[in-house]
Design a protein that fits this description.
The complex is a heterodimer of chains A (164) and B (274). By secondary structure, chain A is mostly helical. Chain A contains six helices and no strands. With 274 residues, chain B is an alpha+beta fold. Chain B folds into two domains: 57 residues; 155 residues, Rod shape-determining protein MreC, domain 1 (Thrombin, subunit H, Beta Barrel), CATH 2.40.10.340. Chain B is 36% helix and 27% strand. The chains are: A mainly alpha (164), B alpha+beta (274).
Chain lengths: 164, 274
């Protein structure tokens, strides 16, 4: 039941993303709060609902963003898959896993966005995208990763309490 | 009066007289030396007294000063909050006044003011979200402007909000008219938010500073909306067209309130395209 926190939390996340985070620009890039939340959630040990959260994130982001649905679905699902795979392998170093997932997830998300938008006819120069959007966004995502991970860890303990 | 007391009186009178004369400056340098000596002495006493007075009264003053300081800091913070709120209202009023002026000077269109409440979550796209939707008769394709010029057009609408594609979006293209050169061109957005002109004929002469307006061709935008000015021109002989960089009239990083032109219906010419 406590998993329903996903609805208000992700709704708040997309509002924050749209109104605040997207204003905090580094060159032309900014952080992807939804991606970081999904990565941090999927990395938690006892979490079983990461895929549900990914679906919800796609719905919320797709509602606000003009990005094609395919980009969101592919990007967020790949992030959850990466996080769950890494969680099983490097569970002893959660922050390392968080950074790795954020790094790989951001690159993948931007790569998918680039490819899909190029295919849909939007003219992009690869060099511009990497230098002006991807690298600054990557840095900002890394900065946001630590506080978001800490918050999501506490939330996971609340949603999935240890049975005594 | 005996002779001793008379003597004392005379001595006092003489010394007192001399002193008065000296203090009155009648003895020249000697008077000045006496004056300065007395002043120094008084200064010394006065400063010592003030020091002692400070020492005695200081603790009481510090407590009262701290209390007063706390009160003043509270007042200052309240006033600062008020100043910020009032400043915001002034800014809003200035923007609204400018928009009202703009709508008065362009009475052929009807406008609906909307506040910018968000931006697209993806850094690849340049879209804004406004707080007016289909409940306010906002429809897809309606142009969005400020008093400075063209902002973009409505891309998607829900009941109480709409998404606007800015002219700086990489996927945006606007048919424009260069007033001074009397020619048409296409305005393109980019991933960095810069806008540029393309498809300028090689036969026309375009100068930096030339005004760029919407041409109305294609039916996507009404004609004669200001977009910006030409900054630099790139003309290469082996290319079919000239290109130019553009300084937009609108500051897209500080969009707060915009106007939607509600009496414009875009024309879909897709079926007519070969």
């Amino acid at each position: 039941m406590r998993n329903l926190i996903a609805f208000p939390l992700l709704a708040l996340a997309i509002i924050l993303q749209s109104s605040v985070v997207s204003q905090i620009k580094l060159i032309s890039g900014y952080a992807d709060l939804m991606l970081i939340i999904l990565a941090a959630w999927a990395l938690q040990e006892r979490v079983e609902s990461a895929w549900h959260w990914a679906v919800l994130a796609c719905v919320f982001t797709g509602f606000v963003s003009s990005l094609p649905w395919m980009v969101l679905v592919l990007g967020y699902f790949v992030v959850v898959y990466l996080a769950q795979s890494l969680q099983r392998r490097v569970w002893q170093a959660p922050l390392l896993a968080m950074f790795s997932v954020t790094f790989a997830g951001t690159i993948l998300m931007h790569l998918i966005s680039f490819i899909v938008l190029r295919l849909s006819g939007t003219p992009f120069a690869f060099g511009d995208v990497v230098g002006l959007i991807t690298l600054p966004s990557l840095l900002l995502n890394m900065l946001f990763a630590i506080p978001v991970y800490t918050f999501m860890r506490d939330l996971a303990r609340w949603v999935y309490p240890y049975e005594e | 009066m005996n002779s001793r007391s008379l003597q004392t009186t005379i001595i006092f009178l003489v010394v007192g007289g001399i002193l008065i004369l000296a203090l009155g400056g009648f003895f020249g340098p000697a008077s000045r030396r006496l004056d300065s000596g007395l002043v120094e002495l008084q200064t010394w006493f006065s400063s010592r007294f003030l020091g002692v007075q400070d020492f005695i009264t200081a603790p009481r003053d510090i407590i009262s000063l701290r209390t007063r300081n706390a009160q003043l800091e509270t007042t200052v913070s309240q006033l600062q909050t008020q100043v910020i709120e009032l400043q915001q209202r002034v800014n809003e009023t200035e923007i609204l006044a400018a928009l009202v002026d703009f709508s008065r000077t362009n009475p052929e269109s009807t406008y609906k003011a909307a506040a910018v409440i968000g931006r697209d979550p993806s850094p690849f796209l340049h879209y804004i979200i406004i707080n007016r939707g289909s409940n306010d008769d906002i429809r897809r394709g309606m142009p969005v402007v400020t008093n400075q010029g063209l902002v973009g057009r409505i891309d998607a609408v829900i009941a109480d909000a709409a998404r606007v594609e800015l002219i700086t979006d990489p996927g945006s293209s606007v048919n424009v008219y260069l007033q001074n050169a009397d020619t048409n061109a296409v305005l393109l957005g980019s991933v960095t938010g810069d806008v540029s002109l393309d498809m300028i004929s090689q036969n026309v002469s375009v100068e930096p500073g030339d005004l760029i307006l919407t041409s109305g061709l294609g039916g996507g935008y009404p004609p004669d909306l200001i977009i910006g000015q030409v900054v630099t021109l790139r003309s290469l002989e082996f290319e079919l067209f000239q290109q130019a960089t553009v300084q937009p009239a609108v500051d897209f990083s500080r969009l707060e309130i915009v106007l939607v032109i509600t009496n414009f219906r875009p024309v879909d010419i897709t079926p007519l395209e070969p």
